[in-house]
Write a structure and sequence with these properties.
CATH class of the largest domain in chain A: Alpha Beta
Oligomer: heterodimer
Largest interface: A-B, 59 and 52 residues
CATH architecture of the largest domain in chain A: 3-Layer(aba) Sandwich
Largest sheet of chain A: 8 strands, mixed
Number of domains of chain A: 2
Number of strands of chain B: 8
CATH superfamily of chain B: Thiamin diphosphate (ThDP)-binding fold, Pyr/PP domains
Largest sheet of chain B: 8 strands, mixed
Number of domains of chain B: 1
Structural class of chain B: alpha/beta
Order of helices and strands of chain B: HEHEHEHHEHEHEHHEEHH
CATH superfamily of the largest domain in chain A: Thiamin diphosphate (ThDP)-binding fold, Pyr/PP domains
Radius of gyration of chain B: 23 Å
Number of helices of chain A: 14
CATH topology of chain B: Rossmann fold
Helix content of chain B: 25-40%
Distance between the termini of chain B: 86 Å
Chain lengths: 393, 293
């Protein structure tokens, strides 16, 4: 039975039977989020509805803005007032947020953005599943950057990674994305919320110097992340989306831009080993490798299990972080297996990244789906059988 | 050898940021000084003052002021300010931006913040065109005025900004030109102390592009025309405040009303029934009799 226990931090510790969107909202509360601004959009609306209700209990600030551009910009303002912030949306709203995401990257503003993916282009299939924003999240805003994007595959992971996203955003001062999909968002299954002591909060680094001393808002520490003063603390910070120097002042110069953009990218790239997460199944002796993520990984795992029952040496790599992409691991696995299959609910997005990393001459097959439904395990199993047949030695 | 002394307003200007980027004859310097004077007169603690701007010539004011300042994306100063103010109600949040930024690309945010009666102060410096990008027409360019994108004269009627602000729900609406320095300072002081969504439009010369394209390339002439054409009408219905090419300009404090200021809430106690997954399930007929799995 469900045991709901609201502790000091407002976390609903215990066992629950809820959908992924609600798990996401609870993950945010557990992650210390007390500021949400959003705009209703299917299939992410339940996150906003849940937080509107729950923030009433835990003293959070909930705002329904006039559009998604306002929503993303609003949470950035709140982050600069010291809050842990989130917004949630789906494809069309996500497209509108690209501008604000660029501002978050340039100004190194910690924030969490949830995209419960639905099928596009445009309004597409508002109520039906897709995984079509995987490249948009990586490249959608203009300019060069690195972000962190998680792909939860279960209701439990909707909670776990939303909670974790807040810590990662605070540590690296970067927007962190939950790239969910409509099925995971609307799927109802068991969720276990740990106790308060197990849900630690990491906080952004604060300046160690006094206000009006030598503090430079964009002078990075050794980890390439600058300590963050916020509005109202007396540091008199200037924050701009323009290229800026360590004082935060605009500098319209090539060398300043080189230094800034390279650091923004490097602060993530040098920490990929700490950031990247994935899960492997039957990988030791695998000959046919399935690489998948989100809801597609659940269809894939069923297919891999059935292939094993048939004696085919299939294995699976499930991406938890799509970005940064586990490049090193995919290169390693490419040397061991005979073929790679990438099922995803789009016409071939993450498969491009797989192809880039697999340079051993083995076939990489994109198992596509235009959206509106998920892969049937049998489709994937058939593909595994074919590959096993063609690559048999 | 020139000896460098201290200007009385030096403490309000961010060290190392001058000279500014504005053209000779621009009204932004006058506006900045009037704003700083108002901050002094209203005794706003500088550590709690936050200035947010969008993009454009006016957008640069934030970066010159020695307070917490945010130079955001084009048109988005108001939603950014919304986040700051709601997240930390102790802050005095002022948005200073241009007419194109606030009313073309950012128009939606303006009307909604006014509707909510969010406790922020918005100063729009209106120079009737996009100055930084080189003199294109915008939502405040008067009918028939020339710009680089309306070479034959502007065909679109402009916004009447005080009227728009009033209709959207602003509790304080005023307009001055940069000729009216003292009145502007007094109005800004009053605005800083008044709770709720307050809007002040500042008519300001852009001799470099708008003036040059419309037969008034001299800033002095432009400011003299403000003196000549302005009519002070406190309390006037801003419906009358429409500005045409070389028309009269209604100035003054048009709106000063009270309305509840927006704050999120209310907060309530935890209600087990409201959130328990079990109780929600009971209400769904299809869920009856199904065990957990």
């Amino acid at each position: 039975m469900a045991v709901s226990l609201l502790n000091n931090r407002g976390i609903l510790t215990g066992s629950h039977f809820v959908n992924g969107d609600i798990a996401c909202a609870e993950g945010a509360i557990a992650g210390g989020c007390r500021f949400f601004a959003g705009y209703p959009i299917t299939p992410s609306t339940e996150i906003a509805e849940r937080l509107a209700r729950r923030f009433g209990q835990v003293g959070g600030k909930f705002l329904q803005m006039e559009d998604e551009i306002a929503s993303i910009t609003c949470i950035l303002g709140a982050s600069w007032a010291g809050q842990r912030v989130m917004t949630a949306t789906s494809g069309p709203g996500f497209s509108l947020m690209m501008e604000g995401i660029g501002l978050a990257i340039m100004t190194e503003t910690p924030c969490v953005i949830v995209d419960v993916q639905r099928a596009g282009p445009s309004t597409g299939l508002p109520t039906l599943v897709a995984q079509q924003d995987m490249m948009q999240v990586r490249w959608g805003s203009h300019g060069d950057y690195e972000i962190i994007a998680y792909c939860p595959a279960t209701v439990q992971e909707m909670f776990d990674y939303t909670y974790k996203a807040f810590n990662m955003a605070e540590i690296y001062r970067v927007p962190v994305f939950i790239m969910a999909d409509e099925v995971v968002g609307h799927l109802t299954e068991k969720l276990i919320i740990p106790s308060e002591e197990d849900l630690l909060l990491e906080h952004r680094k604060k300046p160690v110097v006094e206000p009006r001393g030598s503090y430079c808002p964009y002078e990075p520490d050794e980890d390439l992340v600058p300590p963050m003063a916020v509005a109202g603390e007396g540091y008199r910070i200037h924050v701009t989306g323009l290229t800026h120097d360590e004082r935060g002042y605009p500098v319209i110069k090539e060398d300043a831009h080189q230094a800034l953009v390279r650091r923004l990218v490097k602060k993530i790239r040098k920490n990929v080993n700490d950031i990247i997460e994935y899960e492997e199944y039957y990988i030791d002796d695998a000959e046919i490798l399935v690489i998948s993520y989100g809801i597609s990984a659940r269809s894939s795992l069923r297919a891999v299990n059935e292939a094993r029952e048939e004696g085919i040496k299939a294995g699976m790599l499930r991406l938890i972080t799509a970005w940064p992409f586990p490049e090193k691991r995919v290169r390693e696995l490419a040397r061991k297996v005979r073929a790679v299959i990438v099922p995803e609910i789009n016409l071939g997005q993450m498969v491009r990244e797989v192809e880039r990393c697999v340079n051993t001459g083995i076939p990489v097959h994109s198992l596509t789906h235009a959206g509106g439904g998920i892969h049937r395990p049998l489709q994937i199993l058939d593909r595994i059988r074919e590959e096993a047949y063609h690559t048999a030695r | 050898m020139i000896r460098r002394g201290r200007h009385p307003l030096d403490d309000y200007i961010r060290p190392g940021r001058l000279p500014h980027i504005w053209c000779p004859g621009c009204g932004l310097g006058i506006t900045t000084t009037a704003f700083i004077n108002a901050v002094q007169e209203a005794h706003v603690p500088l550590d709690k003052l936050t200035v947010v701007s969008g993009i454009g010539c006016t957008g640069r004011i934030a970066g010159y002021l020695n307070v917490d300042s945010f130079h955001t994306t084009h048109g988005r100063a108001i939603p950014f300010a919304t986040g700051l103010k709601i997240a930390n109600p102790e802050l005095k949040v002022v948005v200073i931006s241009g007419d194109g930024d606030l009313f073309a690309i950012g128009g939606n945010h303006f009307i909604h913040a006014a509707r909510r009666n969010l406790d922020i102060k918005v100063i729009c410096v209106n120079n009737f065109n996009y100055g930084m990008t080189g003199g294109q027409m915008g939502p405040t360019t008067p009918l028939d005025a020339r710009s680089t994108t309306s070479p034959g004269g502007n065909l679109e009627p402009p916004f009447n900004l005080p009227y728009l602000a009033k209709a959207s729900g602003a509790v304080f609406v005023a307009r001055w030109t940069v000729f009216h320095v003292k009145q502007l300072r007094k109005t800004l002081t009053y605005m800083l102390e008044k709770p709720g969504f307050c809007f002040v439009e500042v008519i300001s010369p852009c001799p470099t592009v708008y003036g040059a394209l419309n037969k008034t390339p001299s800033a002095l002439e432009m400011i003299k025309s403000y003196k000549r054409n302005s009519v002070i009408c406190h309390g006037e219905d801003p419906d009358m405040a429409y500005i045409g090419l070389q028309s009269q300009i209604l100035v003054g404090q048009f709106v000063d009303i009270e309305r509840p200021v927006f704050t999120p809430g209310p907060y309530y106690e935890y209600d087990e029934q409201l959130l328990s997954s079990k109780s929600i399930l009971k209400k769904l007929p299809w869920a009856r009799g199904r065990g957990e799995w």
